[in-house]
Structures are given as structure tokens and as C-alpha cells.
Amino acid sequence: MTHTGLPDTFLWGVATAGHQNEGDNSASDTWFLEHTTPSLFREPSGPACRGYQHWETDLDLAAGLGLNAFRFSVEWARIEPERGVVSAEALDHYERKVDGCLERGLAPLVTFSHFTAPHWFAAAGSWTAADAPARFAEQCDRVMARFGDRIAYGVTLNEPNLEQLLQAGAKLPAEAEALKTRMLAAAAHAAGSGTYASANVIPAHRQDEFQAAFTRAHRAAREAIKARRADLPVGVSIAVADEVALPGGEERRDAKRAAVYDHWLREARHDDFIGVQNYERIVHGPDGEVTPEGERNGMGTVIEPESLAGAVRYAHEVSGVPVLVTEHGIQTPDDAQRAAFVPASVEHLAAEVRAGTPVLGYCHWTLMDNFEWIFGYGARLGLHEVDRDTFERRPKPSAKAYADVVRRHRGPLADARS
């Protein structure tokens, strides 16, 4: 154990995602939707952060912070851009990235699908198609066959409950829901298909159908990954707000948990860990959600450093398996908020571990400002800013704040690496 009560094996990382960071993911469903008229996306992803080219620089940045883990996704749309056509170049690329992590002392945490999928998959029924689990299992198998022997953790799906969370909290206005439906209809027409869907733009009336489909895909992926390597820890990552009840608000809080999290937390009982992605606390009163006084983040909710520990505690209570914090951060243009928020949140997390909740590691979202889906490049969550013309990465004060936290917890281990 470290002097701060966290195990020496604790993973300190950053999380990234292929489509949001790499750029030019042109064979993907999200790319197609960004270029559909009408589109819910504020702007196209385009070159993103040019992470596909600058991956070595990015791994150096992570190692330079004293980290020992790096979460990234392998992009299915790059590896299988057309049905049955496998790109050796893309597999080579991700293999180099895994080896690059290991060379720098970073445990590779691989996400097999971070929302995006190939365009051909989206036009052929997407995740609800009868053969979708088998297609995804094939993709997981080819990734595992190439470098599965060298990765540290496998995350099958990223936030399959995101849409339930958005709808339960009424985060998307009615006009956005209507625009989503029009965009998907236009995409189906443009693709010459009867249907078009993507993992993070699901119409409200198809939520239950997609939850069942994602569950089948997760199980098929887990089986395929374990068939190649039985000892690899595998799990799913879900979005978990810290749901807190004031007196009289318990019933509303419990209903929200049942609608948004509990299916996946029960599913995780068959996994090796549950990935938790936490960005906010929601307070429930007897008459609905309550907004407490306090400083707000860019999502409009009050900044609460205790929210991560609360989300982790609940996830473990229901799932019974260890927690890996696969994402945690704060959307804000004011980096001083981030620089204060990260250390405070980690201290509450460490206290939760000392109290007995098993936590495997912490990944901050994200290494650098990137493409934040329908919000485009407007949302800021990175430890580094990115020049949109030169793609130069520049550290913000929060990068040093996080490095200081890691050094304090890892002690001489971090100093030896940095």
C-alpha cells in the first residue's frame, strides 16, 4: 500500500477515445451523421486532434505526468472499414500504440467500442441487428489475436446507458430529440438503408431495444475476449451520476437509479470489474431535482468533488465487483476549476478506498481538449489545450495539478518515471 492508503497496483491514467482524438475517422457512423443534413452535431470532427499521427507525443505527455495507465479505443471503423475488409495498417497502428504504452510504463486499457462503429454496420441495423453480437465478437477477436496478450484491461462498450441518463435528467431538449430523429431518417435515406442508428444518438422510443442489444453485444464481446485470454480483466463502462436524496427524495432517487444504472450494475456481476464514468452529482428532493447553491461547471450542475466517491460506492454496492474509474473530469473553460476539482475528487476517492470499496484505478477525461460529440469543439475537458491550426498540445495548470496528485500518491515510483 502507498502511504495514502491506495494499493501500489493502483492505476493512474488518462482516458481518450479514437473518434474524438484521432481525426478523419471517415468510415464511421458518427462521421456519416456529422455530414448528414440535418445534423444534431454542431460541427464535423474533421482532423480532431490528429491523434492518429501524434500518438507518440500523446503517450509521452501521459508518461510525463507520472502516470502508469493510458485508456484508448481501437476504432472498429478503421480496422474493418468495409464489411469483411480488414485493414492491416490499422491493426499495425494499434499494435504499435500498445507497445508504445508498455515502453513508457503505461498499462494499456483498451476500449473495444467507444460509441463509434463502422458506417456499414450502422446501415445494416446497427447494434439491434440479429448478427450484431457476432460481428462485434469478430472484431474483438481480431484485436485480441493481434495484441491481446499485451493489454491490461478490456472495456467492451463505453456508456451504453448514456441515452437513458440524458433522458432521465431531461438533458436533451425536445427539439434536439426531434432533430435526432430527422437526422437518423436522413442518414438512412442517404445510405440507401431502411434504418440508421449509432450508439450515442438513439431515439427515445428505442431505448429498451438498444439496452437489450448492447447487453447481447457485451456478452458476446466478453466471451470472444476471454476465449483468447481467460485471465484478462473485462468489463463495461457506464455513466454514473452521484444520485443523492434529500429527505423525501429517496423514491425519486431510487427510480432514477433503477432506470439508468441498475441493469448494467447487475450485468457487471458476471464481469471482472465495472467501469464508472462520473461528471456530476444530482440532488433529488420530494418534488424533483433540486439545484443546490454553489459554483457551476459547464454542464450547469454544481461542482461537487465528492460525487466520484459517491458514484463509485453505489456501483460497487450493486455490482459487487471492483470499480475502475474509466472517466472522471469536469467540463469548464475555466481551468482553475479543473485544477482544484481533480485533487479534491481524488482525495475523496482515496478515502472511499480506505473505507473498503475496491477501486482499481482512476483515469481522467481527458488528456486534451477534443471533439465532444454533438457539442463539437466547444466543450473543454482536457488537461492540455490543442491549437486548432497547428495541433500543438499545450499543458494547462490542471495537468500539473493532476501530476502533483499522482506524485503524492505514487511517491518515488512516479519520480522514477518522470
UniProtKB/TrEMBL annotation:
<comment type="similarity">
    <text>Belongs to the glycosyl hydrolase 1 family.</text>
</comment>
<keyword id="KW-0326">Glycosidase</keyword>
<keyword id="KW-0378">Hydrolase</keyword>
<protein>
    <submittedName>
        <fullName>Family 1 glycosylhydrolase</fullName>
    </submittedName>
</protein>
<dbReference type="InterPro" id="IPR001360">
    <property type="entry name" value="Glyco_hydro_1"/>
</dbReference>
<dbReference type="InterPro" id="IPR017853">
    <property type="entry name" value="GH"/>
</dbReference>
<dbReference type="Pfam" id="PF00232">
    <property type="entry name" value="Glyco_hydro_1"/>
</dbReference>
